[in-house]
């Protein structure tokens, strides 16, 4: 029974990690917007700085995180064979079937 509960926790953690990486671009975009908004408030140039700098920052951040996000998302579907069954690399307890 303990082993089953441990596997459920691993599965939940695995999918939570996938969800965080899927939402990472949105989180980064909002963080960039908030940071540049506060900087614009300090300099009294809210509209001009916020729009230009936010777009530039988001583009650079997306280019930086895109390879990592792509690698992790595709790794969710990679399989290997164990005892004539295909299993997910990131989640060995999950059996992969093609339908």
What attributes characterize this protein structure?
99 residues; two-stranded antiparallel ribbon; elongated
3D structure, described in words:
This protein has a two-stranded antiparallel ribbon with strand order 1-2. The chain is built from two helices and two strands, in the order H-H-E-E. It has one domain (2-88). With 99 residues, it is mainly alpha-helical. Helix content is 73%, strand content 8%. The chain has helices at 2-43, 46-75; strands at residues 79-82, 85-88. It is elongated and about 65 Å long.
Number of strands: 2
Major sheet details: 2 strands, antiparallel
Query: What's the helix-strand series?
Result: HHEE
Mean pLDDT: 79
Main-sheet strand order equals: 1-2
Give me the secondary-structure category.
mainly alpha
Count up the domains.
Answer: 1
The radius of gyration computed from the alpha-carbon positions, rounded to a whole number of angstroms, is 20 Å
Distance between the termini: 31 Å
**Low-confidence parts:** 1-6
Strand share of the residues?
5-15%
Name the overall outline. elongated
Number of helices: 2
What share of the residues lie within helices? over 70%
Question: Can you describe this structure in just a few lines?
Answer:
This protein is mainly α and 99 residues long. It has helices at residues 2-43, 46-75, and strands spanning 79-82, 85-88.
């Amino acid at each position: 029974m303990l082993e089953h509960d441990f596997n459920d926790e691993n599965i939940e953690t695995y999918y939570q990690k996938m969800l965080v990486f899927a939402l990472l671009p949105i989180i980064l975009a909002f963080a960039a917007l908030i940071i540049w908004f506060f900087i614009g408030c300090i300099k009294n140039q809210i509209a001009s700085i916020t729009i230009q700098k936010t777009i530039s920052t988001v583009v650079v951040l997306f280019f930086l995180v895109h390879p990592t996000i792509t690698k992790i998302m595709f790794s969710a579907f990679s399989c290997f064979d164990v005892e004539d069954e295909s299993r997910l690399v990131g989640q060995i307890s999950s059996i992969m079937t093609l339908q």
